[in-house]
TrEMBL record, chain A:
SMART domains assigned: UBQ (SM00213)
SUPFAM superfamilies: Ubiquitin-like
Positions of the Ubiquitin-like domain: 20-97
Source organism per UniProt: Dendrothele bispora (strain CBS 962.96)
Record region (Disordered): 1-20
TM segment ranges: none
Compositionally biased residues, Basic and acidic residues: 1-17
Pfam families: Rad60-SLD (PF11976)
Protein name (Swiss-Prot/TrEMBL): Small ubiquitin-related modifier
UniProt xrefs under PROSITE patterns: UBIQUITIN_2
TrEMBL record, chain B:
Database matches in Gene3D superfamilies: Adenoviral Proteinase, Chain A
The keyword Protease belongs to this UniProt entry's keyword annotation: yes
Protein name as catalogued: Ubiquitin-like protease family profile domain-containing protein
InterPro entries assigned: Papain-like_cys_pep_sf (IPR038765), Peptidase_C48_C (IPR003653)
Family: Belongs to the peptidase C48 family.
Coiled-coil regions listed: none
Residue ranges of every copy of the Ubiquitin-like protease family profile domain listed in the record: 74-244
One term of GO molecular function: ubiquitin-like protein peptidase activity
Signal peptide residues on this chain, from the entry's feature table: none
Domain of life (superkingdom): Eukaryota
Pfam families: Peptidase_C48
Alphabetized UniProt keyword annotations: Hydrolase, Protease
Source organism (scientific name): Dendrothele bispora (strain CBS 962.96)
Length: 99, 281
């Protein structure tokens, strides 16, 4: 591809990048790690479902956090500005009354 | 069961939904039963709590019992509110709602902008413990695992924030209040059981503060009402944290019942929910 071709297709390359898969590490509160590859436009709820299935838990009982904030159902890696090798934290609902 | 009987595939979804509704209904029935019981008792003893109980009871008349609570940045199912009427242990979902209420109170106070309240407060301490267990990687710039707790630490060091407040779950069964004070180099610890700080919690918090400040923070007690039952640590710890950060006297010390504090929390959540939802008259 000539340099000119590369310039003319730049917007297309950008689109591809927007959809390019990124690697995401999911870390449990005990430090266990599971790795996923996910397209930037894919809803993270898909990853959440896959993680819950892998660890054998109900997806409704776990919370997923990116950069300290809870991930919502509609979030995607692109909407959260996630980068390759970013980390998602997993938290199981905690209860307390007395010990 | 007739083994020859066949069901359409959608029935699985239907059963799942039906089970969810049944569970929520059961929770609400228990909540209504509990508040009705309190109404009766308060009426008989001419208790001071009767107006509060009536207010909470009235709120139930128009509140949807299913769906999510509105007006908060996180989606929490409405059924979690039922636990504020009973002796059910409070979960990290309640604590996150309470933290948002506290954040709102702080906005209207003079201390507001100087206080950091992590959104997922219950996750903050486990994350620090994770960092403590992987000390070698904490300052590794290529490691993104601890980015958000590093940012909070940097905000405290730079003076952008002066205090960090949170509720932490210890031994998977007990809520305590914590405030890291950057000016006083102190960790304030409020345990409703009036116990000393958990060893692992102290070690991890002192390690984390040392990483950012280079000095060892001391641990001091935070005023907190004493827990006299086996279920109120969550509400007591939250009230203590709120009072401490707003420089108020901890009102539960003045004889407020823990169950009243739960009802007040319920009404505050509902008030915020109502602001987002139009109520048909």
């Amino acid at each position: 591809m000539s340099e000119e071709d590369q310039h003319s297709t730049q917007p297309e390359i950008k689109d591809e990048d927007a959809n390019a898969p990124i690697n995401v590490k999911v870390v449990s509160s005990t430090g266990d790690e599971v790795f996923f590859k996910i397209k930037r436009s894919t809803k993270l709820s898909k990853l959440q479902g896959a993680y819950a299935a892998k660890v054998g838990k109900d997806v409704g009982s776990i919370r997923f956090l990116y950069d300290g904030s809870r991930i919502s159902e509609t979030d995607t890696p692109a909407s959260l500005d996630m980068e390759d090798n970013d980390t998602i934290d997993v938290m199981v609902e905690q209860v307390g009354g007395c010990h | 069961m007739d083994r020859r009987e066949r069901y359409p595939l959608w029935i699985v979804k239907y059963w799942l939904q039906a089970e969810k509704i049944r569970t929520a209904q059961d929770d609400w029935k228990k909540a209504v039963e509990a508040i009705q019981q309190r109404r009766t008792i308060e009426s008989l003893v001419d208790g001071k709590s009767l107006p509060l109980v009536e207010q909470a009871y009235d709120a139930l008349k128009y509140l949807h019992w299913s769906g999510d609570i509105k007006g908060f940045s996180i989606n929490v199912e409405m059924r979690y509110l039922t636990h504020l009427f009973t002796t059910h242990w409070l979960s990290s979902e309640h604590i996150d709602l309470f933290t948002e209420l506290l954040r709102e109170s702080l906005i209207h106070s003079k201390q507001g902008s100087s206080v950091e309240l992590p959104g997922e407060t219950a996750m903050f301490v486990p994350k620090i413990i994770q960092a403590y267990d992987k000390q070698d990687t904490y300052h590794d710039l290529s490691n993104k695992d601890f980015r958000w707790i590093q940012r909070i630490g940097q905000n405290l060091v730079s003076g952008k924030k002066v205090r960090l407040g949170m509720l932490a779950n210890v031994r998977e069964s007990h809520w305590v209040a914590l405030v890291v004070d950057a000016e006083m180099h102190t960790i304030f610890h409020g345990d409703p059981l009036h116990d000393t700080i958990d060893d692992q919690l102290k070690l991890a918090l002192q390690w984390w503060t040392y990483q950012h400040f280079g000095t060892e923070f001391i641990v001091r007690d935070m005023p907190v009402a004493r827990q006299l039952d086996s279920h109120s640590c969550g509400i007591l710890a939250w009230r203590a944290l709120e009072a401490f950060l707003l420089d108020e006297v901890c009102c539960l010390d003045e004889g407020e019942k823990a169950e009243d504090a739960r009802l007040k929390a319920f009404l505050r959540v509902v008030e915020r929910h109502d602001r987002q939802v139009s109520i048909p008259l």
